[in-house]
Specification:
Its EC number is 5.4.4.2. Keywords: Isomerase. It is a single chain. A hairpin with a 2-residue loop joins β13 and β14. The mean pLDDT is 96. The strands form 2 sheets. Strands 2, 3, 4, 6, 9, 10, 11, 12, 13, 14, 20, 23 and 24 form a 13-stranded mixed beta sheet that branches. Strands 1, 5, 7, 8, 15, 16, 17, 18, 19, 21 and 22 form an 11-stranded antiparallel beta sheet that branches. This protein has a single domain, classed as 4-Layer Sandwich (Anthranilate synthase). The chain is built from 8 helices and 24 strands. The protein has 411 residues and is of the alpha+beta class. α2 crosses α8 and α3 packs across α8. Bound molecules: ligand ISC. The site of ligand ISC has 18 residues, from β12, β16 and β24. Ligand ISC binds next to β12, β16 and β24.
Length: 411
């Protein structure tokens, strides 16, 4: 595997307690922001002390984990805070498809953290970076939109083809996604999108890493010591037009056999992947509802106790890709995605998050996101397809999911 590495021989890391910095996102000095925020808590980072670009491959998580263990193992770390996310941290995003050359880990030079009433600042290398806002963010203006790989009717035909394969017994479920393009007149500043997403979707994980910006509701895995947590999502309906419509939609989603089937594939796979790694594992019998401003999901909160010293990235490797983004059986679904979507997903639907030098971290599934490059944003949305799926309804569901990033870009 050809790795592109930039890192000093030895990281020198110093973390200090600081007074509450308030809104972490407001402290980001550059548009090239690294972020992981939920309910105002989390970490943000900037600058690059070390970076690993991976060409893909099924072993990309293991290779990344090994590189990071060596880097952090050799580092000089002064960290009196000792909280998850204090000391050196790598932010990362991995390609959805092992064939995708898009995986990256970035260890920032500065990390600002806030959690459970504590706040800290970590500096890696010299500390000449000013904390003041260098370039105040400006919102994108005059956006123009265009289709991605497939037009809406072509994507509906792809969904119909997937339903046909499922009905012929080739597979049980596949998740099909599409992309949309937005063009702005000036370079798009990730910080504006992050601020808007964090304000509108506080219960989601608002993230930014190497241009991939979004607010995902789906926690692939959190490791804190030996404690694991995951929030499995699959099965969706759009929000209603008012409280009565919302109530009716909630009841319909909970009662929908098609959505429950979609959900069961995902929850069962997460259970089966975590069971061999855990001494205790709790998976609810029935999904609950997660209500967001644009959609509602069937949700299962899974918790477990790790029975070995695996890092969070080891656990990510065991889980990805779940049927929330790929399908069942995994290999058949991945082949069908390659055949029908007509695009490379890049890091959309891949794991995104952070890991610290203790092996703790939080990784979400990169959903409700866009890849930002200069004046261009590429948005993604996908839907789980089972035997009873209706292409027009799936298209409408994808539009509801796109709304999160459309709002982030347009306000
Ligand atoms: C693939 C996406 O959502 C997944 C997560 C929650 C619900 C889903 C669904 O109901 O289809 C998808 O499995 C996406 O937002 O792009």
């Amino acid at each position: 595997m050809n790795l592109a590495v930039s890192a000093p021989d030895r990281l020198v890391v110093r973390t200090v307690h600081i007074p509450d910095p308030g809104d972490l996102l407001a402290r980001l000095p550059h548009p090239t922001a690294l972020a992981w925020i939920r309910h105002g808590e989390g970490i943000v980072g900037w600058g690059e002390a070390a970076r690993l670009d991976l060409p893909g491959g099924p072993d990309r998580f293991t290779v990344a984990d090994r590189w990071l263990r060596e880097l952090f193992g050799a580092a000089s770390i002064d960290d009196p805070v000792q909280a998850p996310g204090s000391g050196p941290v790598a932010f990362g995003g991995f390609g959805f498809d092992p064939k995708s050359p898009d995986s990256v880990l970035i260890v920032p030079r500065r990390i600002l953290g806030r959690r459970d009433g504590h706040a800290w600042l970590t500096t890696i290398g010299d500390d000449t970076d000013p904390l003041a806002l260098l370039h105040p963010p400006t919102p994108p203006t005059r956006l123009t939109w265009s289709d991605g790989a497939l037009t809406a009717p072509a994507w509906e035909r792809a969904v119909a083809a997937a339903v046909d394969r499922i009905r012929h017994g080739h597979l049980g479920k596949v998740v099909l996604a599409r992309d949309l393009h937005a063009h702005a007149t000036r370079p798009i500043d990730a910080r504006v999108l992050l601020q808007r997403l964090a304000a509108r979707f506080p219960a989601c994980y608002t993230f930014s890493c190497a241009g991939l910006v979004g607010a995902t509701p789906e926690l692939l895995i959190r490791r804190t010591g030996d404690e694991l947590a995951s929030l499995v999502l699959a099965g969706t309906t759009a929000r209603g037009t008012g409280p009565a419509d919302d109530t009716a939609r909630r009841a319909a989603l909970l009662a929908s056999t098609k959505d429950r089937e979609e959900h069961a594939y995902a929850a069962e796979m997460v259970r089966d992947a975590l069971a061999p790694l855990c001494s205790e594992l709790t998976v609810p019998d029935q999904p609950e509802l997660l209500t967001l401003p644009n959609v509602m999901h069937l949700a299962s909160a899974v918790s477990g106790r790790l029975d070995s010293r695996r890092s969070v990235l080891d656990v990510v490797a065991a889980l990805h890709p779940t049927p929330a983004v790929c399908g069942t059986p995994t290999t058949t679904a991945l082949q069908l995605i390659r055949e029908l979507e007509g695009m490379d997903r890049g890091r959309y639907a891949g794991p995104v998050g952070w890991i610290d030098s203790r092996g703790d971290g939080e990784w979400g599934i990169a959903l409700r996101c866009a890849q930002i490059e200069g004046t261009h944003a590429r948005l993604f949305a996908g839907c789980g397809i089972v035997a009873d799926s209706d292409p027009a309804a799936e298209l409408a569901e994808a539009q509801s999911k796109f709304r999160a990033m459309q709002y982030a870009l347009e306000g």
